[in-house]
Amino acid sequence: MALISTSRDGFVGTVTLDNAEKRNALSSALIGELCDALAAFRDDHLRAVVIRAQPGVKVWSAGFNIDELPEGHRDPLGWDDPVRHLVREISRYPIPVIAMVEGSVWGGACEVVLACDIIVIAPTASFAITPAKLSVPYNISGMLTFLNAAPACTVREMAFTAKPVSAARAFDLGMVNHIVPVEELETVTYGIARDIAANAPLAVSVMKEQLRILEGAHPVSPEGFERLQGLRRVVYDSQDYLEGLRAFKQKRKPVFEGK
Ligand code: YZS
C-alpha cells in the first residue's frame, strides 16, 4: 500500500504523507517512498518541492516509527537510520523543499520539517523534540539541525521538557517562515514554490548548498565527537531506553530510574 502520494504542476512537485492511520509515523517504508519521489522529481528537473500531509490532519507526523527502534545495545539513530537518510536527502537536495504543516509534528519528524528550506504552517501546527520521552540519545547531526533552526535556549527547553511548542510561538521564535490561516495554507505555500520555480535554478541550487555547508561549519574535535558518541551509548544501553520503548508499546507512561 502506498504511504505517500505525489503530484506535479509545472516545475513544482508535491509529496503528500498519506498514512494517517499510523499518524504518518516515519517508517523505513514511508521514508523509502518519500526518497524515491524526491529522486524522481530531481531527475525531472523540478524546481521546488512541497512536503505536506492530507488536509485537516491532527498529526502531520508522529515521528520515527517507534516499532522499528532497536531493542537496546545498538545506536537507534545511527548513520543508516532512515530518518538520517531523509534529513540528509532533504538538506543535500539540489531543489528547495517547502514543508507545509498543519497538525502536530513529533520527534524525528520535527527534525525533518526543520531540515526543510522553507516552512509554512497553519495555527494548528505544533512541534515537539521528544527523545527525553523515550530515553533515546538523539544523534549529533540531528541536534545541529535543531540548533540551526531555533535559539539554543529554545532547543534546550524543547529537548528537556519534550513539550510541544505552539505554531504562534514557533513563528515568534523564527523557527518557521510563515503562519497563515488554514484556508490560505496552499495559496501561500504554492505561491512561494512558484516564485522559486520562476527563478534561475542553478543559482538557487548553489545558494542552497552554500547555506548547507556554512550552517554545518561547526568543527568538533575527534575527542569531542568520541565523547558525545560514548555518552549517547550510555543512554541506548540503559534500562530507561528499554523502558521508554516498552511503555510506548504498552500505551502507558514510562517510569524512568536514571539507569
Ligand atoms: O494502536 P495502533 O496500531 O492503531 O497504532 C497507533 C499508534 O501506535 C501508532 N503510532 C505510532 N507508531 C509508531 N511510531 C510512532 N511514532 C507512532 N505514533 C503513533 O499510530 C496509531 C494511532 O496512534 P494513537 O496514539 O492512537 O493516535 P492519537 O490518539 O491521535 O495520538 C497521536 C499522537 C501523535 C499524540 C500519539 O500517537 C503519540 O504520542 N505518538 C508518539 C509521538 C512521539 O513521541 N513521537 C516521537 C517518536 N520518536 C522519534 O521520532 C525519535 C526516535 S525521538 O524519540 O528521539 O524523538
From TrEMBL:
<dbReference type="InterPro" id="IPR018376">
    <property type="entry name" value="Enoyl-CoA_hyd/isom_CS"/>
</dbReference>
<dbReference type="InterPro" id="IPR014748">
    <property type="entry name" value="Enoyl-CoA_hydra_C"/>
</dbReference>
<dbReference type="InterPro" id="IPR029045">
    <property type="entry name" value="ClpP/crotonase-like_dom_sf"/>
</dbReference>
<protein>
    <submittedName>
        <fullName>Methylmalonyl-CoA decarboxylase</fullName>
    </submittedName>
</protein>
<dbReference type="Pfam" id="PF00378">
    <property type="entry name" value="ECH_1"/>
</dbReference>
<keyword id="KW-0456">Lyase</keyword>
<dbReference type="InterPro" id="IPR001753">
    <property type="entry name" value="Enoyl-CoA_hydra/iso"/>
</dbReference>
<comment type="similarity">
    <text>Belongs to the enoyl-CoA hydratase/isomerase family.</text>
</comment>
